[in-house]
Amino acid sequence: MDYATAFAISASGMLVARTRVDVTAVNLANAYSTRSADGTLFTPLQVVAAAKRADLFEGMLTRADSAFPLGGAEVVEVRRTNVPPRLVFEPHHPDADATGFVAYPGVNPVAEMVNLVAATRIYEANVAALNAAKSMALKALDIGKTS
Amino acid sequence: MFGIDKLTLGLVNMALNAASMRHTTIANNIANAGTEGYQPVRVNFEEQLGALGASSTARISESTLAGVRPFVEPAPVPGNKTGAAVMVDMEMVRLAQNTLLYQAILGGLGKKLAIVSAAITGGRR
Question: Which of the residues A3, A7, A76, A143 would you substitute to probe the B interface, choosing the one with the greatest number of B C-beta atoms within 10 Å?
Answer without folding.
Answer: A143
